[in-house]
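Dear Dr. H.,

I hope your travels went smoothly. While you were away I took the liberty of generating a structure for the chain from your last submission, since the lab meeting agenda had it listed for discussion. I wanted you to have the full record in hand beforehand rather than looking at slides cold. The sequence, exactly as received, is reproduced here:
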Amino acid sequence: MSNHPLDFMRLPTSLLMALDSRTFHFWFQPIHYLVRMLHILSMSGFFGLEMLFALAVVQQMEKDALVRLSRFMLRPLHISYAIAMITGFALFFYDPVHIGARAYITPKLIALVVSGILEWYGHKALYWPIMKGRDDKVSLWCKVFCFSACMVWVVVIVFSCLNSEGVPKVFLRHYF
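The corresponding predicted structure, in token form, is as follows:
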């Protein structure tokens, strides 16, 4: 029995075992680290572009510059998001029992769903009107929304970091 505070949120082992495919594991093994590097690079590219757009909105960048910035960012943002999601799924299915048994995978998945919904809504309600130059001034709720969407992505990244390795062991004795 684990004493982890999020232990109740762990994915069932039977589900993780049903998702496990040794064929995919052995096929994917030679390129595993390359896909992991691609995942980290695309995720950081997406997060950087998202943060750049949020900072531009929050800091009241002038309308023409904001329209140009959003048009410049559109394709790289979508490409990096797609690559991060595809490689993330591939990395999960590489070893679902090992990855899914960790304590922070469920909060990470919940945060990913929330951030995906925020991104869908944000692009529909905020990003496209700004890119088309419809709004003369960005409203306060738009700023709050952009900031909160970025904070949810920060939560996803924090849970990813917490989920990647175990807690380091602290040695309480000093030998000197």
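Two observations you may find useful: The chain has one domain: 20-164. The radius of gyration is 20 Å.

With kind regards,
E. W.
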